[in-house]
């Protein structure tokens, strides 16, 4: 059952009104939000390339917490990144699945049997601790469910890293391999095929043992949408395409993979599609997706800007399109996130009730799981070494890091 949380207290807190200075340039951040009644886009794979990870681990050793420059300082004087406390009123606490340790050990060992990365890259991959991410965002699942979640997170990031190495044609070929493995898991993969096919096949065979047919159909549909978006991302990279803020959100909501990932919370449920398409549940999924991608882009920006790899980062896109410095950009994004929090909590209290008690229980647990996803992703960002190395807890407390110099 969902854990007891004081949702009314969070809603009853001080209402947030964005500082007009942060959005004085033409675009209100809320204009980037549009949630249709039937939200069907799936989220997008969250990471950047493995060599970016290795580079990042080298750089973050020198992160120095200090006080940020005041708003309004010229961009040339900005030397520090101050992360907004976006979840200051979020009612979901951090909660770790009690099966984390054993699932991490099993899933990590399983992935390494495929030899998908070089030893150096595998070490960097492990430091990101995607099993911790799974155990934070799937905190209420059984041991078997937690293991499926760990395997899925490892698969997501394997796909993301490997798709970054190929052009549009190569990405489409690999996407087709993954979908064939999902639709035909009983058929062994061909010798010499890209390793992602066999990783997917084994993941899905394990997931099928504990999942409902309803979940299986929904997951396969969402994973197809996710992979199609990854092919589109490869095309953008190949064609050197820069997107606007609205275009970025449209693509990133899918490439981050959240929609396909969050439905693992219903792995043993039978929630009808009509219920999932309810406008309030759709808003919960959409708002959670945007909050997660904002967290990813804000926390990864420092390393990405240092190595010139920030084209697909919201911070860099807002700075470019709105002509803002870094401080005002983060203020702009914080205002956007505050609106998302309000939108999520409003929708959470309007999730419909049904005559079927079991369906009501499943819907309540799924909605609760979406709130936990937002908290879990944020917690993982500081507890793993993905973004801040061994200084994650320190950065979480101070919310400040030194802006890294660009490496030519």
TrEMBL record:
Source species taxonomy:
Eukaryota, Fungi, Dikarya, Basidiomycota, Agaricomycotina
Spell out the InterPro entries in the cross-references: Isoprenoid_synthase_dom_sf, Terpene_cyclase-like_2
Family indicated by similarity: Belongs to the terpene synthase family.
Region span, Disordered: 1-25
Q: Does the keyword Magnesium belong to this entry?
A: yes
Question: Per the UniProt record, which EC number(s) apply here?
Answer: 4.2.3.-
This entry's Gene Ontology molecular function terms read: metal ion binding; terpene synthase activity
Q: Which UniProt keywords apply?
A: Lyase, Magnesium, Metal-binding
Q: What class of enzyme is it?
A: lyase
Keyword Hydrolase in the entry? The reply is no
Organism per entry: Mycena sanguinolenta
Its recorded name reads Terpene synthase
């Amino acid at each position: 059952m969902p854990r007891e949380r004081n949702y009314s207290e969070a809603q009853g807190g001080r209402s947030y009104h964005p500082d007009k200075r942060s959005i004085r340039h033409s675009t209100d951040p809320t204009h980037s939000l549009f949630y249709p009644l039937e939200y069907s886009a799936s989220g997008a794979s969250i990471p950047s390339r493995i060599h970016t990870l290795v580079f990042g681990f080298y750089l973050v050793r020198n992160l120095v917490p200090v006080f940020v420059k005041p708003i309004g300082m010229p961009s040339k004087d900005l030397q520090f990144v101050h992360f907004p406390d976006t979840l200051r009123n979020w009612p979901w606490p951090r909660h770790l699945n009690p099966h984390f340790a054993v699932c991490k050990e099993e899933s990590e060992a399983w992935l390494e049997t495929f030899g998908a990365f070089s030893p150096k890259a595998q070490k960097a991959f492990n430091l990101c601790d995607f099993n911790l991410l799974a155990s934070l965002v799937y905190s209420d699942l059984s041991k078997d469910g937690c293991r499926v979640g760990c395997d899925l997170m490892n698969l997501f990031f394997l796909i993301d890293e490997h798709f970054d190495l190929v052009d549009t044609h190569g990405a489409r070929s690999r996407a087709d391999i993954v979908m064939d493995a999902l639709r035909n898991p009983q058929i062994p993969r061909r010798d010499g095929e890209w390793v992602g096919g066999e990783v997917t096949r084994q993941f899905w065979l394990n997931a099928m043992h504990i999942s409902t047919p309803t979940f299986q159909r929904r997951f396969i549909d969402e994973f197809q949408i996710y992979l199609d978006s990854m092919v589109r991302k490869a095309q953008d990279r190949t064609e050197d395409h820069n997107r606007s803020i609205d275009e970025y959100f449209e693509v990133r909501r899918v490439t981050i993979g959240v929609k396909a990932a969050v439905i693992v919370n219903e792995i043993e449920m039978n929630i009808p599609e009509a219920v999932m398409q309810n406008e309030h549940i759709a808003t919960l999924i959409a708002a959670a997706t945007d909050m997660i991608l904002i967290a990813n882009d804000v926390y990864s920006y420092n390393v990405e800007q240092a190595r010139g790899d920030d084209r697909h980062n919201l911070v860099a896109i807002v700075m470019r399109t709105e002509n803002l410095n870094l401080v005002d950009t983060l203020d702009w994004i914080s205002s956007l996130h505050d609106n998302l929090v309000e939108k999520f909590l409003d929708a959470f209290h309007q999730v419909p009730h049904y005559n079927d008690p079991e369906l009501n229980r499943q819907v309540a647990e799924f909605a609760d799981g979406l709130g936990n996803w937002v908290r879990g992703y944020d917690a993982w960002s500081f507890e793993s070494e993905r973004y801040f190395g061994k200084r994650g807890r320190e950065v979480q407390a101070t919310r400040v890091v030194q802006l890294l110099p660009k490496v030519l």
